[in-house]
Amino acid sequence: MSTTKNRQQTGARKKRTILIFALVVIILFNTPPAAFFLQPAYHYQTRDASFSYSEEPGKGMDYEVLQIRYAEYREANKNKSDQQLQLYRTFKFKPWQFWQWWEMIVRNQRFRLPYLER
User: Fold this and answer.
1) Rg of the chain in Å (alpha carbons)
2) Is the dihedral of CA 55, 103, 94, 64 positive or negative?
3) 87 class by beta-carbon count within 10 Å (0-12 exposed, 13-18 middle, 19+ buried)
4) What are phi and psi for residue 115, nearest 5 degrees?
5) Of the four, 32, 41, 46, 67, which is 20 to 30 A from 57 by CA?
């Protein structure tokens, strides 16, 4: 009887250890220093590619700069229709990449843009 109880306790302890390890890895990979090196380049463009932008966080080319440049583009191209001015993301949404979860939560606007295959 006691060996069965010991096995159950060992199994529960092992599961808890694995869960804690997984949570620590997820948290560490979502901290700014790690996310900085693991963040992919996000690309955006209009359907006709008259406007395109690639985020490069290490060079100050982030999502906020995209919004500024895109607003300038829209202002300079008022003669185009809203459909021609629509901004698309050209990257796929990959929720299994846990190191991007923080970006998906904090900057979810980029993931809500319609997808355009390159």
Assistant:
1) 22
2) negative
3) buried
4) -90, 135
5) 46
pLDDT along the chain (118 residues), means of 10: 68 87 75 61 93 82 91 96 95 80 82 91
Name the residue ranges covered by the structural domains of the chain: 1-30, 40-112
Whole-number Å distance between alpha carbons of 19 and 7: 18
Which tokens go with 96?
């299994």
Return the residue matching tokens 């690639």. 54
What is the 3 state secondary structure string of the chain? CHHHHHHHHHHHHHHHHHHHHHHHHHHHHCCHHHHHHHCCCCEEEECCCCCEEECEHHHCECHHHHHHHHHHHHHHCCCCCHHHHCEEECCCCCCCCHHHHHHHHHCCHHHHCCECCC
Q: Is the pTM of this model over 0.85?
A: no
Residue 38: what pLDDT?
Answer: 59
Whether the CB-CB separation of 62 and 55 falls below 8 Å is answered with yes
